[in-house]
Amino acid sequence: METKYISQGGMAQWFESIIASGKRVYAPVNSRGQVDFKLVKNLSEVADDYIQTTQSIKASVYPKAEVLFTYEKDHGKVNLSDFDPETIPETVLWKVHPCDAAGFKPLSAIFNWDSADKLHNAHLVKTSVISFSCAKADQSCFCTSVNGSPGNTAGSDIQLTVLPDGGAIAEILTPKGEALVALLPPVFEAERGDKKEQYLVDLPARFSLEEVNAKLNKAFNSTVWKEQSERCIGCGACAFVCPTCACFDIQEDVHGSKGRRIRCWDACGFALFTLHTSGHNPREHQSQRWRQRILHKFSYMPDRLSVVGCTGCGRCSRACPVDMNILEHITSIAKQ
Amino acid sequence: MSEKNTYLPYLMTIDKVIKEAPGVKTYRLKFQDESEAAAFDFQAGQFGEYSAFGEGESTFCIASSPTRKGYIECTFRDTGRVTSGMASLEEGSTMGFRGPYGNVFPLDEWKGKNLVFIAGGIALPPMRCVIWNALDLRENFKDITIIYGAKSVNDLVYKEELKEWADRPDVRMVTTVDPGGQTADWTGEVGFVPTIVETVAPSAENTIAIVCGPPIMIKFTFPVLEKLGFTDSQVYTTLENRMKCGVGKCGRCNVGKLYICKDGPVFSKAELNFIPAEEY
Predict the structure, then answer these.
(1) Which of B101, B123, B156 is the last residue of a domain?
(2) What pLDDT shows up at residue B122?
(3) Planar angle of CA A266, A84, B9, nearest 5 degrees
(4) Is B6 on the interface with A (CB under 8 A)?
(5) Residue B134 structural domain
(6) What ipTM does this complex have?
(7) Residue B257: inside a domain
(8) Total domains in the fold of chain B
(9) Contact assessment for residue B61 and residue B27, using Cβ atoms and an 8 Å cutoff
(10) Burial code of A113-137, b = ≥16 C-beta within 10 A, e = fewer?
(11) Can you state the angle between helices B124-136 and B159-167, rounded to 10 degrees?
């Protein structure tokens, strides 16, 4: 890893050189008050004053709906056309928060734990992540409780920490990061001895993961699930904004003799998620589905994949229409 | 990148259609690509994702025995979008298949033991695979008993094979239908599977019981076996939950922290004791 200094003007020139290289660039854009990652061409389009994008950056490596393969039916025969990884363009994600970048690891753990997922990996290979450390947080943020921090570099190729003069400390973390620096090396100046920690928001941890994990091991039959989920309407918003939720459905899209098989985001909060054709539903009640959500993230994933399925981004709490707050719920489980 | 696309199915031709019961059919499927056919292998207990192109995929066990080479069979009931799409296909049509997935019945560990197969309704197919596998290697096992029940005489699947098993001197075959499901000429038992098991099951000594049926049948049969002296490690079952991927990623078939698609579908009762029964 190498640390450099980049001035505000240098950053603008470097951004232009990334665009000029032909890579597509996604960055947070403020569209009538809602900030989300969009395709951008100019640095001036990038949003400035916000805590968190509504959606995570997950869709860049795991699209909301992605064609697994296409086929054509021809007089009882079927011809298949496989997904082609070459169709994925080189992509740069600009101004990703550390909690989003940290989400790549649990996502990849799910997609690759037992067999490689060709589609997800095709996106990962083509994607470079430029994260910005966090100088601000709100009451929903809790990255420091789930192995993260406002300056966590996990999942990033380069991390920038913006300084009062508008320039930034640039941590060049991976070969992909070096390749981005190589687009315009002169703007990366010798570091000036700036202390990164000084520019990060102070966010004390709210619970201990180990403690939560230990409690959850014995909590399957607890009454806490029903108590916490009584107001849950099963809308799935929490899963759709989550940077690590990976559960999916596979759907068929047919037009005449041509068809596509498509992988689409799904959510364990939906009543139909586990419904058998017979009518039997192993997770019939919302409380069972809420339990699955929490146990999967904070017990099953740590135990089986050695990753926690939460990066503390707080989006599920911000998005919930009935004000369920994961931080409060997890904290109360830890205290039980 | 040379990674294989897990979701791309093998293309299969429907080689044979057998009507089993009202709404229930068995398809024999052959690989269209000879090199795929040659490379394909599976073991008793495994399952796959079967596609009707235009409708989607459904999860079924492989109902034929791995000792019968060159094809796989699946038995399904016409109930949803995919199965009704499958049911409308004819011999010679193309289907898709992904698999084999999941773990297997430990037939090697069962050498020298008695086997009792207990199945209910449409759950005979996963059992049929292991029954034929055991019968094709008959010398490896001692007494073999098959107890099979369905709602009514009409609902019994594999009727020809039930006769074949009943006629074999080396198999004890007990067939039952639920009370009210019998016909005038019915010569089998009348009663629910757990009740019949209690009266006809062999001694637990040196015996493995394999139970396969709707969740309710499994839940009532286990205590009967326990009463008969079967320990938890002598009892096996195969579970099914709704699945999409079959390979431990889509997130819906888990029972506690175990995935039915990866850690199952075959579980010993000893293993089931560590997972929550309400999730299957």
Answers:
(1) B101
(2) 82
(3) 65
(4) yes
(5) 114-238
(6) 0.91
(7) no
(8) 2
(9) no
(10) bebebbbbbbbbebbbbbbbbbeeb
(11) 40
The type of residue at A201 is: V
- For residues B198 and B82, membership in a common domain is answered with no
**Residue-wise pLDDT tens digits, B223-276:** 999 999 999 999 999 998 999 999 999 999 999 999 999 999 999 999 998 888
CATH number for the domain that contains residue B29: 2.40.30.10
Please write the tens of the pLDDT for every residue from A85-95: 999 999 999 99
Task: From B150, B141, B204, B198, select the one nearest B171 (Cα to Cα).
Answer: B141
Q: What is the pLDDT of residues B54-75, one digit of tens each?
A: 999 999 999 999 999 999 999 9
Kind plus residue range of the DSSP H or E element containing A293: helix A286-295
**What tokens appear for A162 in the block?**
């913006």
Query: pLDDT at position A76, please?
Result: 84
- Please tell me the total count of domains within chain A: 1
Nearest CA among A258, A207, A236, A244 for reference residue A322: A236
The pTM of the full predicted model, rounded to 2 decimals, is 0.93
B258 within some domain: no
Choose from B254, B259, B272 for mutation: most chain A CBs within 10 A.
B254
- Nearest CB to B8 within list A77, A80, A266: A80
Under the phi-then-psi rule, with left for phi > 0, alpha for psi from -120 to 50, and beta for the rest, what region is B191? left
Q: Give the nearest partner residue to B7 out of A69, A254, A295, using CB atoms.
A: A69
| Same domain (yes/no): B119, B90 | no
Both tokens of residue B134? Answer: 């055991």
Cβ distance A91 to A126 under 8 Å?
Answer: yes
Residue B265 belongs to some domain of the structure: no
Distance of alpha carbon A129 from alpha carbon A63, whole angstroms: 16
Helix or strand or coil: residue A29? Answer: strand
Residues of chain A contacting B240 with CB distance shorter than 8 Å: 276
Please tell me the distance from the alpha carbon of residue B156 to that of residue B188, in angstroms, as a whole number: 12
CB A180 within 8 A of CB A255: no
Residue type, A269: G
Range of the domain at A104: 2-335
pLDDT at B1 over 60: no
What residue of A is the nearest CA neighbor of B89?
Answer: A76
Q: What is the mean pLDDT of chain B?
A: 94
